[in-house]
Amino acid sequence: MSSPSAPPPSGFIWATRGRNWGFRFLRRGGLDDPLGTYEEAFTDVADRPEVWHRTGDMVALRFSDPLQRQDAAGRVIPHDFVLFGSWAAGLNSLEEGQKRMWLEVADEFASVWDQEPPLRTGQPH
Questions:
Q1: CA distances from 96 to 1, 61, 99, 100, 124 (A)
Q2: How many C-alpha atoms does 99 have within 13 Å on its Cβ side?
Q3: C-alpha torsion 121→77→23→39, nearest 10
Q4: What secondary structure letter does DSSP report for 45?
Q5: Which of the 8 DSSP states describes residue 70?
Q6: What is the tens place of the pLDDT at every residue in 55-77?
Q7: Which residues make Cβ contacts (< 8 Å) with residue 112, sequence separation at least 6?
Q8: Which among 96, 95, 79, 76 has a CA at the least distance from the CA of 87?
Q9: Which is deepest, 1, 52, 56, 121, by most CB within 10 Å?
Q10: How distant, in Å, are the alpha carbons of 27, 39, 72, 74, 116 from that of 13?
């Protein structure tokens, strides 16, 4: 997940795409490079359209955009999360995860999803 000298992840990783920009990390869980941790969390469930999967202290969560927003190719936009610590604790279903995380990110996503690339966010979170 992370090297011994790197700080442990915190909060959550959030990966998604927008109308005109491809897959990217909007939240990084405090990691400079969250890709390895993201891949580890989704290893066993990579191609499923909806996911709730606990691995150790992490929860991988994937759901379609609740407002059914689509990218320029007409695909419904997915939201992928890797949750750590208190974000993962007590989260026991896809439905719970979707409700909790959408409340957290809905406004942020609404403000960026239809921007033109390159998207700039306050990374790393």
A1: 25, 10, 5, 6, 26
A2: 6
A3: 110
A4: G
A5: B
A6: 888 999 999 999 999 999 999 99
A7: 18, 26, 119, 121
A8: 96
A9: 52
A10: 5, 11, 24, 25, 22
Q: Decide if pLDDT at 121 tops 70.
A: no
Amino acid at 41: A
Place of tokens 């580890």: 40
Is residue 2 within a helix (H) or strand (E), and if so which, with residue range?
A: none
pLDDT at 57: 87
Q: What percent of the chain has pLDDT over 90?
A: 77
CA–CA distance from 85 to each of 11, 30, 53, 65, 88 (Å)? 7, 12, 15, 24, 5
CA dist., res. 17 & res. 27, Å (int)? 12
Count the helix, strand and coil residues of the chain and give each as a percent rounded to the nearest 5. 25, 25, 50
